[in-house]
Amino acid sequence: MSRQARLREEYATWYPTIPPGRWQLAEAVRRIVLRQLRHGSPSWAPGPRILSDRHFEFQGGSAAGTPQASDVERRRRVPRVTPRQAPSDELF
């Protein structure tokens, strides 16, 4: 399931183009919020995430930047390659 976001009723006036209480794809909502931050009003300073937990509810998927279990497993299976160090006589 894709990550979804729903605007909380109490923040409806802050996001005039997003209907409150309706689940939508989080990525689509994020694009709307970014556009509003750049060109619209009201304007506010975003926190570490564009879609604030205070303003939105979320379901499904995972937050952007949060590794999925499959990503973690893949990293465990792939051997880590380190660059070969040159012997000291090659360092001129």
Describe it for me?
By secondary structure, the chain is an alpha+beta fold. It has one domain (4-78). Helix content is 25%, strand content 11%. It has two helices and three strands. The chain has helices at 26-39, 69-77; strands at 4-7, 24-25, 56-59. Strands 2-1-3 form a three-stranded antiparallel β-sheet. The model is unreliable at 67-83 (pLDDT under 50).
Gist of the model:
The protein is an alpha+beta fold and 92 residues long.
**Largest sheet, described in full?**
3 strands, antiparallel
| Beta fraction | 5-15%
Question: Number of helix segments?
Answer: 2
Q: How many angstroms separate the termini? A: 56 Å
Fraction of residues in helices?
25-40%
Give a topology summary.
Layout: E1 4-7, E2 24-25, H1 26-39, E3 56-59, H2 69-77
Key terms:
2 helices; 92 residues; 11% strand; globular; 3 strands; alpha+beta
